[in-house]
Amino acid sequence: MSKDILLCGVGGQGTVLASKLIASAEMSKGHKVRSAETIGMAQRGGSVTSHVRVGEDAYSPLIPLGKADMIIAFEPAEAVRSLPYLKKDGTVIVNISPVRPITETLKNTGYDGTEMIEYLKQKVSNLKLVDGEILTQKCGSAKALNIILLGAATAAGELDITPEDVRKEIIENIPQKFHDMNLKAFEEGLRV
Fold this sequence. Notes:
Elements: E1 3-10, H1 15-28, E2 33-38, E3 47-54, E4 68-73, H2 76-82, E5 86-95, H3 102-107, H4 114-123, E6 126-130, H5 132-139, H6 145-155, H7 163-173, H8 179-190
Parallel strand pairs: 1-4, 4-5, 5-6
Antiparallel strand pairs: 1-3, 2-3
């Protein structure tokens, strides 16, 4: 068994925590895991990419182009930017709610993510769209997006972890005062 999962978003969306939960769940099952993050200007809303590779063939932590089984995208433009990593017939889980970059606020180019979503619909045969804005409102916090997307990815069946595996990791790796919110967010993601 081998799986390559790429998570992408912008700083502050929780991509690194989501990748750590996936890696920890896989390691708890006895699987070999390699992972790496490319953070860049994350504190200023820059791109964040996390690679999670599972299996005996994962000698390097970085996923080669065209080899990712799944992309979990926290933002539409980041999904498009990461698309070259996706293997043929791979799965993309994408939050349809855009994060407007600083350049958008300066020039008002009209970026709303719609064009990116349409592009993904044309290029990806196994695409799951998640309305992160609505679901985070149900959970009471925008910080729940990462766990919602993790739920959607788990429900897609491409990961070698079960919902119970992820619930266990949430309880073990997230402070107790945030358990209820994150477990609710995970359940919302599972229902997408």
